[in-house]
Design a protein that fits this description.
alpha/beta; TIM Barrel; eight-stranded parallel beta sheet; two-stranded antiparallel sheet; 12 strands; binds L-rhamnitol; binds zinc ion
Length: about 425
């Protein structure tokens, strides 16, 4: 089994770390207070491999793909809630849940996407209330017969386009309903797979249709206290390798023009392109952004987020610039080859670690080096900071927030696997 925490030892480590950071002028207690205020939007779809609860035969599609068949995945909303609550109990802080329209509870009825109602999400709202969570929302514009040919809101068929417009209109209303009920705005994020596998002749037409469709979707003004709109671009997907209609330029223009949120997904750009570098630019032109923190491996593979340089660059940008009120941090990964609760916990804990590491940085000192043109000290210090006793602060943060310290959380995952997941198949 994995080692259990020893409170006295954690405290000792923390005292030591506190002094080490204080030498650089970093107040570790203030850092922890700041960290506690940041909510991560944990995505529900890691829990069931992006399947949902519609009464239609589940269809894959949309160019996204969960691979693996680890046993014990959630089959019902109750199971998914139970699993998500388990994961959240292993993650320090109070967070949010990111829901997709396909996770509505429709009873025995077949409710098509253009007929979803706020009530279909009441159980989620009650559950979120009981745990003090906020909820974010997404229309589901994929895995549906009307998306089978790869087009939704930009479809050339008026009827199909109208169907998806209705779905997105209802999704925004549901977002507002949820946000009102929970007293915290839901970020409703629109992503659609529309695009061409092979070289199109007309790139303008679908984009013009998408713009019009989005205008129809966004027509109803909703109270920003209840709902915030976001749009998510992509470079390519499986089956849309040559041209994605909702490209970066398309949505950046749309978000700026309409002053809504732009969603940047770490896996939706060229593999060497980092979303971290985009944040400071786009925040000059849009009020707020949404992030889909993901881990692309060679493509938009949606691997579980880990504390790598990409994640660190993202969290550093947020923290160094005090952007935490303007950047909504959502997660977007789905690995079906490992324990799904461990996947959630690993990715969410890693993201919080990234934020903590960034907060422990003596940024002003580094900025001063940079302004003086002293790149020697800037580089050398950035390297030295990597071996500061960050782990001791992280352990203490977990202890303080009543979640397992170190690898101890894996003991709980193992027990849950035995008691709950193993009984599902
Ligand atoms: C797909 C997008 C999108 C989805 C989720 C399920 O490439 O990243 O955000 O992953 O909506
Ligand atoms: Zn995404």
């Amino acid at each position: 089994m994995f080692p259990k925490n020893n409170e006295a030892q954690v405290q000792k480590g923390y005292d030591f770390a506190k002094e080490a950071y204080a030498a650089y002028g970093v107040d570790v207690d203030a850092v922890m207070a700041r960290l506690e205020k940041i909510a991560i939007s944990m995505h529900c779809w890691q829990g069931d491999d992006v399947v949902g609860f519609e009464k239609v035969e589940s269809l894959s599609g949309g160019g996204i793909q969960a691979t693996g068949n680890y046993p014990g995945k959630a089959r019902t909303a109750d199971e998914l809630r139970q699993d998500a609550a388990k994961a959240l109990s292993l993650i320090p802080g109070t967070h949010r849940l990111n829901l997709h329209a396909m996770y509505g509870e429709f009873g025995d009825k077949v409710v098509d996407r253009d007929a979803i109602e706020p009530e279909h999400f009441d159980n989620w709202i009650d559950w979120a209330k009981s745990l003090g969570l906020g909820i974010d929302f997404n229309p589901t514009c994929f895995a549906h017969p009307k998306a089978d040919d790869g087009f939704t809101l930009s479809h050339s068929d008026d009827g199909i386009r109208a169907f998806w417009i209705e779905h997105c209109i209802r999704s925004r209303q549901i977002g507002a309903y949820i946000g009102k009920a929970l007293g915290s705005p839901a970020v409703t994020n629109i992503w659609l797979p529309d695009g061409f596998k092979d070289i199109p002749v007309d790139r303008h037409g679908p984009r013009a249709r998408l713009e019009q469709a989005l205008d129809a979707v966004m027509k109803e003004k909703l109270d920003p206290q209840h709902n915030l709109d976001a749009v998510e671009c992509k470079l390519f997907g499986i089956g849309s390798e040559t041209c994605v209609i909702g490209s970066h330029e398309f949505y950046m223009g749309y978000a700026i023009k309409n002053q809504i949120l732009l969603c940047l997904d770490a896996g939706h750009f060229h593999p060497t392109e980092s979303i971290a570098d985009k944040i400071s630019s786009v925040l000059l032109y849009v009020p707020e952004i949404l992030l889909h923190v993901s881990r692309p491996v060679r493509w938009d593979s949606d691997h579980v987020v880990i504390l790598n340089d990409d994640l660190r660059a993202i969290t550093e940008e947020i923290i160094r610039n005090n952007y935490e009120k303007r950047v909504h941090i959502g997660l977007d990964f789905f690995d079906a080859s490992i324990n799904r609760i461990a996947a959630w916990a690993t990715g969410t804990r890693a993201t919080i670690k990234g934020l903590l590491l960034a907060m422990l940085e003596p940024t002003q000192m580094l900025r001063d080096f940079e302004l003086e043109g002293n790149y020697t000290d800037r580089l050398a210090m950035l390297e030295e900071l990597k071996t500061m006793p960050f782990g001791q602060v992280w352990d203490y943060y977990c202890l303080k927030n009543d979640v397992p310290v170190g690898a101890d959380w894996l003991n709980e995952v193992k027990a849950y696997e035995k008691d709950v997941l193993a009984k599902r198949d």
